[in-house]
């Protein structure tokens, strides 16, 4: 749909910040406050001091996204965010985050079958900016962890650029890459299901963003414990080993 002409009173007011935030939020338009918060959060996330944080005290957020497909650059959108906080090898069970978002596009039938997310569910969900803002608020300045993180990073970057014209600057650790280093030749595909089974982690609620995040968190904790046994004491050590894996 073509955007209304520049002189349209409402849209012109929106651009000048003259539309109340609550109305803009309902419409799915990013508010100045939301954009400012996200932009401030993406600044200086690659601080060098975090590299020296002892691994057993490192604060992370393990997360997962469900999406309408696999290409953030070709129209696929985020359907849901799920995340859980971990400190060292301790999962903070009560510090969880989950939200559906309205993708404002068709959800393919096979995605509904895979995730259980329907158009009716997302029609009542908040717009992307609200979900993204709340997710980033939950993350704060913590290191992110995901499985096969390239997919999730691509969608986060697309969402951040679409809403706030910024890119993700948080450090992101990938449990698949950690498995390839810590468990070489032990797996065929290094899929999440395969790694969970190998670690005897019960597989429940797959392809639900929060449940996948919780299972990935258990995998991350297992790897933290293994790294500590190998005298890998901080994030700098982790990166050094991954660069040679």
Automatic annotation (TrEMBL):
Keywords: Exonuclease, Hydrolase, Nuclease, Nucleotidyltransferase, Transferase. Coiled coil: none annotated. The keyword Transferase applies. Its EC number is 2.7.7.7. NCBIfam families: dnaq, PRK07740.1. InterPro entries: DnaQ, Ribonucl_H, RNaseH-like_sf, RNaseH_sf. Residues 59-229 form the Exonuclease domain. This is DNA polymerase-3 subunit epsilon. Pfam families: RNase_T. The keyword Kinase does not apply. It is an enzyme of class 2 (transferase). GO terms for molecular function: DNA-directed DNA polymerase activity. PANTHER family: DNA POLYMERASE III SUBUNIT EPSILON. It comes from Paenibacillus peoriae.
């Amino acid at each position: 749909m073509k955007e209304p002409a520049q002189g349209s009173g409402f849209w012109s007011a929106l651009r000048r910040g003259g539309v109340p935030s609550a109305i803009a939020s309902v419409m799915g338009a990013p508010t100045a406050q939301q954009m400012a918060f996200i932009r401030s959060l993406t600044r200086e996330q690659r601080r060098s001091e975090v590299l020296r944080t002892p691994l057993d005290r490192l604060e992370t957020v393990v997360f997962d996204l469900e999406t309408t497909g696999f290409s953030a650059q070709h129209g696929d959108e985020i359907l849901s965010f799920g995340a859980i906080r971990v400190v060292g090898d301790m999962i903070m069970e009560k510090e969880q985050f989950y939200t559906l978002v309205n993708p404002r596009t068709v959800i393919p039938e096979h995605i509904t079958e895979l995730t259980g997310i329907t158009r009716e569910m997302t029609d009542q969900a908040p717009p992307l900016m609200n979900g993204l803002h709340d997710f980033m608020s939950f993350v704060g300045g913590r290191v992110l962890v995901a499985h096969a993180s390239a997919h999730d990073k691509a969608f986060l970057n697309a969402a951040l650029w679409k809403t706030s014209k910024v890119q993700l600057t948080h450090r992101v650790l990938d449990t698949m890459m950690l498995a390839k280093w810590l468990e070489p030749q032990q797996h065929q595909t290094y899929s999440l299901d395969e790694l969970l089974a190998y670690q005897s982690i019960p597989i429940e609620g797959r392809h639900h963003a929060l449940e996948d995040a919780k299972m990935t968190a258990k995998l991350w904790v297992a790897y933290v414990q293994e790294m500590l046994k190998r005298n890998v004491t901080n994030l700098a050590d982790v990166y050094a080993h991954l660069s040679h894996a």
